[in-house]
Design goal:
The protein is of the alpha/beta class. The chain contains 18 helices and twelve strands. Strand 3, helix 6 and strand 4 form a beta-alpha-beta unit. It starts with a helix and ends with a helix. The model has no long low-confidence stretch (mean pLDDT about 100). The site of (2Z)-2-iminopentanedioic acid has 11 residues, from strand 3 and helix 16.
């Protein structure tokens, strides 16, 4: 059996219940054959066995008291995946679906993503099965404080620097930062995505969505094209979806859909983003409220966002939200580009169908890397005790996304599959991080 298949089988045998983790490992390892076959030292150094195994996995309980005085207990995780390029770095997800499989898949993706940024960032991921939805600010604060009461002993600005992800935004990061500072009696850039008044970076809020659109724009430019006049379908209506929509609109494209876990909206006139921000960022409401307020807009319950006609699709909600049938529908409707704002939103079968039909498929570990890259810029500003203007951070973000696009394109050509960005991203990310692992010995 080929070395790659053997390691995939080992992962399946060791963690048979971790479906998302197995999916992520299979997706990455399956595309590494040319680079593994070209150098026997990888197998001699057991590099695949080492890269699929987190350096450290921490799981802990988080008890907290709700407004009625009832005690709840959540299960929390921090998976410190790989630190050979820098401190562990990656977000914290707060969502009832969170389990070890999901955190490990996200941490594993982060290894390659952070490598692609070329910044000094290791990789990690964490979170808890806590649902911030419908909770009061006081309840969220008490959860975040008790979450940090354990997490603090495992992190620091030079060890592990968590950030936001689904369910974790500026409010949650603020409460966690306050608790860390109090317990440790030290002010340091231990979290990114902080508020602007206490060490946050300008443009971090926008960075993942903007970066996604910069990446797609690089691809369009390489074909003498642009967003002007393009119809774009976006899923999700959280941080990534909102700022991807904003940048598409700035560049002249028309976004016609958004969604949340309840359903999706279609506005043929183009999404009115001020209203979405008010519903989602200010009132923490549901996307269905948009259709109540906009004449001509439709709300559909459940799945179905990918049935809308579009030139470009940007899945920005969650894992496995773009399935085989959705991919078929996108192809039938003439969609030419699918770029992932979320982590692993497209199933392996859907990805293969899109690529086989000539759709430019941009995998999240490349196209959504602008968020963590800008977190890296926040860390630099915190270490230097300085803050850069919005324009400076945004220019650096654009430069990073341009470089990732170039490196991924070049790697796809070098390994005989020009335009296959899955192959390009996995190989380019793998090469940088494993060069560092090889140089640092068996540790
Ligand atoms: P948010 O919490 O701000 O928004 C998440 C959005 O996705 C919401 O609209 C939410 O709807 C929807 N969603 C979440 N879970 C599900 C589900 N199971 N089914 C359907 N819809 C769902 O998170 P972000 O925008 O920050 O994250 C979105 C994606 O982008 C995630 O995959 C994340 O890992 C990835 N990402 C985020 C980065 C960042 O910097 N924030 C960086 C790189 C990637 P509802 O409100 O109904 O739950
Ligand atoms: O998936 C991701 O890259 C993130 N949630 C952002 C991580 C970070 O450290 O900014």
């Amino acid at each position: 059996m080929h070395y790659i298949d053997r390691v995939i089988e080992q992962v399946k045998a060791k963690d048979p219940h971790e479906a998302e983790f197995i999916q992520a490992v299979t997706e990455v390892l399956s595309s590494l054959k040319p680079v593994i076959d070209a150098d026997s030292r990888y197998e001699e150094a057991a590099i695949l066995e080492r890269i699929v195994e987190p350096e450290r996995t921490i799981t802990f309980r988080v008890p907290w008291v709700d407004d009625a005085g009832k005690v709840h207990v959540n299960r929390a995780y921090r998976v410190q995946y790989n630190s050979c390029l820098g401190p562990y770095k990656g977000g914290l997800r707060l969502h009832p679906s969170v389990n070890l499989s999901i955190i490990k898949f996200l941490g594993f993706e982060q290894v390659f993503k952070n490598s692609l940024t070329t910044l000094p960032l290791g990789a990690g991921k964490g979170g808890a099965d806590f649902d911030p939805k419908g909770k009061s600010d006081g309840e969220v604060m008490r959860f975040c404080q008790n979450f940090m009461s354990e997490l603090f002993r495992h992190i620091s600005a030079d060890t592990d620097v968590p950030a936001g992800d689904i369910g974790t935004g500026a409010r949650e990061i603020g409460y966690m930062f306050g608790q860390y500072r109090k317990i440790r009696n030290v002010w340091e850039g231990v979290l990114t995505g902080k508020g602007l008044s206490y060490g946050g970076s300008l443009a971090r809020t926008e960075a993942t969505g903007y970066g996604l659109v910069y990446f797609v724009n690089e691809h369009l430019k390489s074909n003498d094209d642009g967003f002007d006049g393009k119809t774009v379908a976006v899923s999700g209506s959280g941080n990534v979806a909102i700022y991807a929509t904003e940048k598409v609109q700035t560049l002249g494209g028309k976004v016609v859909t958004l969604s949340d876990s309840g359903g999706w909206i279609y506005d043929p006139a183009g999404i009115k983003l001020d209203l979405v921000k008010d519903i989602k960022e200010v009132k923490r409401g549901r996307i269905s409220e948009y259709a109540d307020q906009v004449a001509g807009a439709e709300y559909h319950e459940g799945r179905g966002v990918w049935s809308a006609n579009c030139d470009i699709a940007l899945p920005c909600a969650t894992q496995n939200e773009l399935l085989l049938d959705d991919a078929k529908q996108l192809v039938a409707n003439g969609c030419k580009i699918v770029a992932e704002g979320a982590n692993m939103p497209t199933t392996i079968e859907a990805t293969e169908l899109l690529i086989a039909n000539g759709v430019a498929f941009c995998p999240g570990k490349a196209s959504n890397a602008g968020g963590v890259a800008t977190s890296g810029l926040e860390m630099s500003q915190n270490s230097g005790r300085i803050s850069w203007e919005f324009e400076e951070v945004d220019a650096r973000l654009q430069g990073i996304m341009r470089n990732i696009y170039r490196e991924v394109s070049q790697a796809s050509t070098e390994f005989g599959e020009p335009g296959n960005f899955v192959v390009g991203a996995n190989i380019a990310g793998f090469r940088r991080v494993t060069n560092a692992m090889m140089a640092q010995g068996v540790v």
